[in-house]
Fold each of these.
Amino acid sequence: MLAREEDVEAQALRAQGWSISAIARHLGRDRKTVRAYVAGCE
């Protein structure tokens, strides 16, 4: 589960063209978790 701030940051980074893997490394989270949040699922 991502904190609200992490969710917002992940969405913003994805909009800037960051890959799921890069966002996951940046946030220190699993790729699958980041992918789910970017897709809009919780």
Note: The helical segments are 4-15, 20-27, 31-38.
Amino acid sequence: MSTPHVVVVMGVAGTGKTTIGPLLAAELGVPYAEGDDFHPAANVAKMSSGTPLDDDDRRPWLDAIGRWAHGRAGLGGVVSSSALKRIYRDRLRDGAPDAVFLHLTGDRALIEKRMAGRTGHFMPTALLDSQFATLQPLQADEAGVSVDVSGTPEEITQRAVAALRRLDS
């Protein structure tokens, strides 16, 4: 990308935001921030118990990510956030108007398999259905690209870099 953008790596749980985000940041030469680290403790406890977050739960989290992204404006950065609904992405853009979204997409079975194989994460596979039910894919008027998550992390990252570079051309 010619201009340093803040890229929000989005998608349902298990698509690889935490894996692809740092790889993408390294490839672009910008810092990475893990979106889960912006969650208040109450959100983590709620999700750990198998209860999906509601819009009220997400507001302070989205605002914190938006503040980080705003601080990186013109400098570039990569941050992960599920950003499942348009209103969530709009809220992030309120803080960082030039943010670009990278939507990681994939087959539900593949995502569930990856979720089941990870350890130490607070999001149970039981919440995957609620994630897909909530998901509103990027719209044509939103700055961003979608990339399929099949393949290795390196392959996904290279597809993401190529797609993001096409946004600038």
Note: Residues 50 and 127 are 7 Å apart (CA to CA).
Amino acid sequence: MRFLLYLIVYPFLWCISMLPFPILYLFSDFTYIIIYHIIGYRKKVVRENIAMTLPHLSAQERFIIEKKSYRHLCDIFLEMIKTMTISEKEIQKHFVFTNLDVYTNLEAKQKSIALMVSHYASYEWVISLNRKVSFNGYAIYKKINNPYFDQLVRSIRSRFKANLITNKETIPVILSNNKNKILSTYGFASDQSPKITSAYHWQKFMDIEVPIHIGAEVLAKKYNMKVVFLKVEKIKRGYYQASFEILSENAKEVLNYEITDLFIKKVEQQIFEAPEYYLWTHRRWKHRR
């Protein structure tokens, strides 16, 4: 049954990926009408998240952010599909790294790198970084239940030399690479809510005390990695720029949770600057004090 679903959906996805960008975004506008106005996908969650975290705004201002966030959500969903067939030249035009030298200077120091990113703007096209660097690139992700779609996602990412590893695979892969002296960059999306059973550190995020993922910091300390934050900004529809900000070059010497807290503060700053580009559909504040 799952294979049959894949056979039905895949040709449709491939056809979408072949659309030129202007038509792709017209299709995104149509998708927005379905997702927001007809289905109302997670509208209650989005509304509650925005109300909790941006209480200083008026109801009308929050409503505008809500609608814009859904338009952006549809854009990044279609852009993810576009990645199936997008050329290297196209993706480099649409996703620009403004200060790649900061990253390459860290590579020159011959230490693996923990790259901390958030679910803001375009986190999908960060994979294009792998065509510009020499280290092996790994993106940590949640495995898709349908194995055929899971393999599709893996094959899409591999077009840009990205290796996908699940949470369970992360430590064994890092341990193996460290043992074999394989220098690598590991991408951590650390702004999601961890399981309550793994809530070792609580911090205010958007002025609400919640559990925070500490995996990137813990692994960086244990395996002596450099830690970098990738700030991604949406310049206009379909165009993004990303800049590297060093969080620590000596993670072992930093107080526990200091790197994680600095990351969270940087994500907060992004959200306050343009909240409509954050992924509000996640239940990020479901565990809160």
Note: The CA atoms of residues 60 and 66 lie 10 Å apart.
